[in-house]
Amino acid sequence: MRIVVIGASGVIGSAVADALEKDHEVVRASRRGQVRVDMNDTASVDALFQSVPDVDAVVCCAANAPLTPLDAGVDAEDVVRPKLFGQVHLVREAARHVRDGGSVTLTSGAFDRPMAGGAFGAMVNAGLEAFVAGAALEMPRGLRLNTVSPGWVAETLETLGMDASEGTPVSEVAGAYVVAVEGDDRGKTFRPSR
């Protein structure tokens, strides 16, 4: 398969690209890479499918919803737009360009323990998972749509100076994306957590 991994320069994206490259042709895309795409810019997402044709699968590991307190004085739409609406737009474009029987895999997330600054992220993640469950029923031409909810990644926690044992190793997280791409599930949220 020819697979585009968006966010391939990040911790999760690079691990996913590495894992998929064992058996597939992977095109690594990111904001600063050779193949450029920015989930904040719908024109950039549209252009991706023009610059990388004949794609069998798309995996988005790029978008995030940063911890943002309710009283931060920012527009809620600016916080949720890239991760929620950026990925929704990606699905709509992928439905027009990914080969018949292909796969689209998004990234939601997990806020299984409420935390300060996490309300917007929790809303986005729940929204993405509900969107995937519903939109999977409408995907044309046998396309499959799923999401992965990685939760805290051990390597990210370590970088933040936190206890890495509270997270899931990125190799296990990447394995969930491989299963989503290569399997036959539709509308599923994969949760690779310990």
From TrEMBL:
SUPFAM superfamilies: NAD(P)-binding Rossmann-fold domains. It comes from the Bacteria. Keywords: Oxidoreductase. The keyword Chaperone does not apply. Gene3D superfamilies: NAD(P)-binding Rossmann-like Domain. It holds the Pfam family adh_short_C2. PANTHER family: DIHYDROANTICAPSIN 7-DEHYDROGENASE. Belongs to the short-chain dehydrogenases/reductases (SDR) family. This is Short chain dehydrogenase.
